[in-house]
Design goal:
Number of strands: 6
Number of helices: 2
Strand content: 35-45%
Structural class: alpha+beta
Shape: elongated
Order of helices and strands: EHEEEEEH
Largest sheet: 6 strands, antiparallel
Radius of gyration: 20 Å
Length: about 160
Amino acid sequence: MSSPSATAPNDGSTWNVNNWHWEEKNWTEWTYTRLREVLSNVTVDIPSGSLKSIEVNGLHGEAYVNIRKGKKRVGYELDFSVKWEGELQDGSGAEVAKSKGSIKFPYVCEDSEDEPMQNEVSVEGKTPADDRLKEAVRKLLVPLLVDKIKAVIDDLKTK
């Protein structure tokens, strides 16, 4: 006989025949781990320089899968930041300016899936080079990270 926590073919536990009864599975730690894996060390070349995501910080929230009456519902509400760094180079490839900052994703939630993902880009410095790198992060790095976040959510939906 299978244990109550064993998974049945249609995503529910073996005790939950036809996935009829309410069952909730916590996927928060899996989601945190995947976000850290896919959002760290993402690099992008920019004109006269490069950008790189460094690490994910301040992960808060939850991710879960509910099953009831044969229907699966995936839920998540996440809040986190991604640290970034960038550099500008001259024509010979020598570093001219270096900067760092963060990208805050304050509300990644199933309720807002059809809307553009909220984000706030910040930079530590106040020089024109810092502003240039911040704008490059907004235009080039953020879209890559958003695509990776969406891929993690798509993976979650298969659980």
